Amino acid sequence: MTASPVTPPRRGVLSAVLALNKQPGQTSFDCVRQVRRIYGERRVGHAGTLDPMAQGLLPLCLGVATRLVDHFHRQTKRYQCTVRLGERSDTLDTEGAVTPGGDAGGLDAATVASALRQFVGEIWQVPPMHSAVRHEGEHLYDLARRGEEVERAPRLALIVSAELVGFRPGRVAEADLDVECGKGTFMRVLAGDLGEALGVGGLLSWLERTRYGSLDLADAHTVEELQRMEDPTLALLPPEVAVSFLPAVFLGPPAVTLVRNGQAVFLPRGAAGLPQGEVRAHAAGGELIALGELTGFRFRPTKVMAG
Predict the structure, then answer these.
(1) What confidence tens digit (pLDDT) does each residue in 25-39 have?
(2) What would be the CATH architecture of the domain defined by 15-74+214-242?
(3) Which helix (H) or strand (E) segment is 132 a member of?
(4) Do 15-74+214-242 and 246-304 agree at the fold level?
């Protein structure tokens, strides 16, 4: 996806999406803080935390577009990762205390691929203690830092596809995976659960997010690249990137004015083949005006993109 000029909904009001390439060692909030400084915009929100050890695509919504963060969460993500089989960790990755597991020397690629297939579809995962999930108002990672461990109820997660794309045998074997998943899926938990299914234990040793919704890692810029750019706004994408999975309708000038004020409008009855249900509404020039529900020819805005 090539960056295109971002048209603010009103003069001086920013509304855009940034595809950021997060580097290992950075927290997701580190990235938010740096992007705030680069663009002079206080309203910056990220869609889906990446652990500090992880790298790759981190979508950021700026300005008015922060209202669309939840719509990113409705879309699938794609990861490349490496699982070490034959080791365990209290954090399910290399950041924690790593201990020996079973001898993985008897595993081959076919056995690992077969075990991986059982995790495709809707599965149950227990959130790790070192995660942003909340327990009685506190993040689990805050409890873990205090040495506390609490019971966590299993949660449904969706894994759309999971493929073994590389395998290196040994007492500690390495399996390279390509995984597409939905919101709330923990790759560390997948690594640990895969290792237990194979009877040797497992942990996540490397993770990169390569796709999120319609965004691809090839669209992304590092913080350092943005800082070097003479005009970093050239890296911004229009806000509809966050809702590209919704069908679009276009409004004339009178309807745009009414919708900006939160009023329902009727589309021309001559319009054929209108989508029904949840849609995104644009002005004739392409600017995203609102999200809403289209019933027949009546568009009712539910989220207006005003500053």
Answers:
(1) 998 999 999 999 999
(2) 2-Layer Sandwich (3.30)
(3) none
(4) no
